Amino acid sequence: MASLKVYSVGRLARYVTDSSLRTLRTNIYRTTVCKYSTEEKAAEPETNNKNLPASIEECHKQIEALTTEVSSLKEQIKEYDDKYKRALADGENVRRRMLKQVEDAKSFAIQSFCKDLLDVADTLSVAAESVPEGVEGEGAPAALRSLRDGLKLTRAQLQQVFSRHGLVAVSPLREKFDPNLHEALFQQEVEGAEPGTVVTVSKVGYKLHERCVRPALVGVAKGSS
User: Fold this and answer.
1) What number of other Cβ atoms are within 10 A of residue 47's Cβ?
2) Which of 46, 99, 106, 198 is deepest in the core (most CB within 10 A)?
3) Which segments does the entry list as coiled coil (predicted)?
């Protein structure tokens, strides 16, 4: 019986001791956490106050520094905006130039071929004009009439093909001399002709889409001496 009492008292003492230790530990933890939170909150204003100027002079200095920085940034923005606009303008000019080159390539791709055909057209014209005028009568040989009619018809069809592709003949008789379309072979005094006027066309010129392919060989009137 005595041993049972001793065991009960020992258990009770152990329980009281454990409860006291747990309570003590909890109180110590709470005290430490509260103290740390209080110190942290107290340190925050000190940290924030470090960024503030200590005097009015320092405040003015900071304002001047910020103003200078803002001005510098504005200049950079202006410079970048100017470069951006210039880049856009250059890109647009390149685009237009490329479109123009593509259109010219399409329009003048046959320029060399046209130059080669001009000699054929000249030969055909000479052949049509070389047939005597007398073959058009009823007594003229039928072969010559057929030849002359065939040459005229071929020349007319060839001129239609030229016109369809933008190749136009330039025969500037009695027109003002244009150095871009005409090539002067000689000058002569012609009564009643204004100086600088084309009075003779030795060879017809041609232009393709307003571009001179072959200048017309002409004689030009000059003023009387």
Assistant:
1) 8
2) 198
3) 56-90
The CA distance from 105 to 101, in Å, is: 6
pLDDT at 29 over 90: no
Confidence (pLDDT) at 59: 84
Task: Print the SS3 string covering the chain.
Answer: CHHHHHHHHHHHHHHHHHHHHHHHHHHHHHHHHHHHHHHHHHHHHHHHHHCCCCCHHHHHHHHHHHHHHHHHHHHHHHHHHHHHHHHHHHHHHHHHHHHHHHHHHHHCCCHHHHHHHHHHHHHHHHHHHHCCHHHHCCCCCHHHHHHHHHHHHHHHHHHHHHHHCCEEEECCCCCECCCCCEEEEEEECCCCCCCCEEEEEEECEEEECCEEEECEEEEEECCCC
pLDDT per residue as tens digits for the range 70-99:
999 999 999 999 999 999 999 999 999 999
pTM beyond cutoff 0.85: no
Q: What distance in Å separates the CA atoms of residue 171 and residue 190, rounded to the nearest whole number?
A: 19
Estimate the crossing angle of helix 111-130 against helix 142-164, to 10 degrees.
Answer: 160
**Cα–Cα distance measured from residue 32 to residue 159, given in angstroms and rounded to the nearest whole number:** 110
